[in-house]
């Protein structure tokens, strides 16, 4: 959801400066505009800068997160793989209101058996620009979202830049959303 709703920080809150990726603390009482509320994070325009607020701090800006993920303990490998892709679709580029799957940032997703009941997920992904300071934040977001899935016990995310990302890697839905289709 893209918005321009006003927000007031109810408490001091750690945030990530976009696109630099540096950590800042937004003081209690600071006013800003909520520009993006998608997945498990929020983008807020504060004092001439965009900052990303992690979902764990949603209360600091008067927001709530979607209900937690519920998965059957008897889910098949195929069901878990579909759920992994669904979770990846809850990870959003903080500047572009499109998830990383539709942006074409995820190149590979592989589930590996760890034992009879648990899996490791290996992800190969890229960024829209090699110098993007948000790479660490995006890879951490992917890890955290996938580890929310029961039976996923390890997640390895590799950032790659070959092939380089281009607009042609976006899904038709993403291109339509950005006016490129």
Quick summary:
With 181 residues, the protein is α+β, with helices and mostly antiparallel strands. It has helices at 77-88, 135-147, 172-177, and strands at 2-8, 13-18, 23-26, 31-38, 41-46, 49-54, 106-113, 119-125, 152-159.
Overview features:
181 residues; alpha+beta; SH3 type barrels; GMP Synthetase, Chain A, domain 3; 2 domains; 6-stranded antiparallel β-sheet; 3-stranded mixed β-sheet; 3 helices; 17% helix
Describe the structure.
This protein has 3 helices and 9 strands; from the N terminus they run ββββββαββαβα. The chain has a 6-stranded antiparallel sheet with strand order 1-4-5-6-2-3, with no helix packed on it. A 3-stranded mixed sheet has the order 7-8-9, covered by helices on one side. The protein has 2 domains: 2-61, SH3 type barrels (Roll); 77-177, Fe-S cluster assembly (FSCA) (GMP Synthetase, Chain A, domain 3). 17% of the residues lie in helices and 33% in strands. The mean pLDDT is 90. The protein has 181 residues and is α+β, with helices and mostly antiparallel strands. β2 and β3 (23-26) form a beta hairpin. The protein is globular and about 50 Å long.
CATH arch. level architecture of the largest domain: 2-Layer Sandwich
What's the main sheet like? 6 strands, antiparallel
- Number of alpha- plus pi-helical segments: 3
Number of strands: 9
Question: For the record, what is the CATH homologous superfamily label of the largest domain?
Answer: Fe-S cluster assembly (FSCA)
């Amino acid at each position: 959801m893209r918005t321009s709703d006003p927000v007031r920080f109810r408490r001091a809150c750690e945030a990530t400066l976009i696109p630099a990726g540096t950590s800042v603390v937004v003081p209690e009482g600071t006013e800003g505009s909520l520009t993006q509320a998608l997945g498990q994070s929020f983008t807020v325009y504060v004092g001439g800068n965009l900052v990303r607020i992690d979902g764990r701090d949603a209360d600091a800006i008067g927001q709530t997160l979607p209900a937690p993920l519920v998965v059957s303990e008897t889910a098949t490998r195929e069901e878990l793989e579909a759920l992994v892709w669904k979770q990846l679709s809850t990870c959003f580029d903080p500047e572009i209101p499109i998830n990383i799957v539709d942006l074409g940032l995820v190149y590979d997703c592989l589930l590996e058996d760890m034992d009879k009941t648990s899996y490791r997920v290996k992800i190969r992904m890229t960024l829209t620009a090699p110098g993007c300071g948000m790479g660490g934040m995006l890879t951490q977001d992917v890890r955290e979202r996938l580890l929310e899935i029961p039976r996923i016990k390890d997640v390895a995310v590799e950032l790659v830049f070959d092939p380089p990302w281009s607009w042609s890697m976006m899904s038709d839905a993403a291109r339509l959303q950005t006016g490129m289709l």
